[in-house]
Amino acid sequence: MTAPLLTTRDLSVTFSDGNGGLHALGAVSFSVLPREFVCVLGPSGSGKSTLLRALAGLLRPSSGTLDFNGLDSPPRIGFVFQQATLMPWRSVLENILLPLELQNLNPAAAHAKAQEMAELVGLQGFENSLPRDLSGGMLQRVALARALIHDPDLLLLDEPFGSLDALTRERMWMELSRLWLARQTTVLMVTHSISEALFLADRVLVLSARPGKIKLDLPVDLPRPRDDDMRYTEPFGRLARQLKAAIE
Amino acid sequence: MEPTLSRLSENLNPKSPKPPATGWILPVVGLFALLSWDLFTRYGNIPAFIFPAPLQVIERFSRSLLDGSLLRHSAVTLLEVVMGLLVGTSLAVAMGYLIAKSRLFERILSPFLVASQAVPIVAIAPLLVIWFGPGIFSKVLICALIVFFPVLVNTVVGLRAVPRALNELMRSLRASCWQTLTLLEIPAALPVFLGGLRIGATLSVIGAVVGEFVGADRGLGFLINIGRGQFDTALVFVAVFTLVALALSLYGLVILLEQHLLAWQETHP
Ligand SMILES: Nc1ncnc2c1ncn2[C@@H]1O[C@H](COP(=O)(O)OP(=O)(O)O)[C@@H](O)[C@H]1O
Ligand SMILES: [Mg+2]
Fold this sequence. Notes:
The complex is a heterodimer of chains A (248) and B (269). Chain A is α/β, with parallel strands linked by helices and 248 residues long.
């Protein structure tokens, strides 16, 4: 059995709000293996984004622990937000290479790597476009390329495809599973959609309503590569029913 | 803008009809105004020391241009304006950054800043001239004071408008304070900041003239005073027009800067 990349123990977050504090995330304990794809499902307001932000070091947990086992330095994080948060004054390529620029990599190498990433996510020909000239799906591709370019230890995705239309969204699922396989990244992804979770994940965590606690930790043993037809199979239906029951 | 980009945006935007050409309006209106002015002074029987005719102003203009006095005085005013703009903007940006970043600084400084705005600069200009003499220094100070507040406010508003999500992105990538400042905060605050600078540039001209009115032996404001004292109203006109040209040039310079730095914004084609 491989050692987990990440372990949380009774992780909980309380926001101060004047009257006793808002308990956003209940004590959650789970671990994520290296190269695992974990999806987090849960009703809105159950603390899914809060969990991701705590893992990214954007906020300090109120109690509990959070360990990146086996990493001797702080983890490199790739974060994709629900809205593509791109810098509107930077071109596609300049947005993608931002993490490398922050690591002070030399510009030529950064450009070459960003070019490679742009091609990997299917943005060739748009390297010099500005974000305002791109569609929603393309913007999320830029955000995805930016989140992956510095080979993060952990890729955090917060409902990244929530604002896309159904067709684009399903195309992005294919792209994401291809990227995940190619880059051998560990992924923790928040989603609202049961099909999305079953399409992508090795494991699905279901959070309860606020304060979010882990209600179900469901391994998804569907064969890969997964395609459209899979959703009409019996195992898919069984898993989907299980998740549905846990969410309600 | 790059050709590929404009092509792309053309493809994405539905064809918009070309706006009608408006370039002819300004010269025509200008010519009309000049003509009315000329007729007004010619047939209105108005003495030149009250309202000089266009030709008299032009004649006065070329005279003061030829003897070098116009350039000399303009140079002094320009120096005051630009120095004041630089000093006022630097102080405003430094203080604006502190205020935008720290609640404590905001609490401490805000009352003073708001109160300082209640003091009319015209009223304390004489004090500054008394304290710092009739030379350039007191004018630079007045310009800096008048420029300070609008640039400060716009700096704070601009920095506060930095999208929270982009800030979190930078933090998740472990960007240093300096990297966050140069790669995120400055570019994000630039549009609002430049709006403040645009206001500051024109206000600075006003500051210099106010200072020169109060007490100076050089500058365009001084020239206006001289003209008034000697009933040389044509000279007053020359100085006023020169001031307008100066303010417009500065304003235009900031606009050029905006177009260059904010080319990524849709409003700046
Ligand atoms: N910075 C914050 N300050 C105070 N309350 C917050 C903050 N962020 C989130 N919350 C609250 O915490 C709860 C969980 O939020 P969130 O993690 O965004 O839920 P989810 O992503 O599952 O919809 C919500 O009730 C939300 O209002
Ligand atoms: Mg959320």
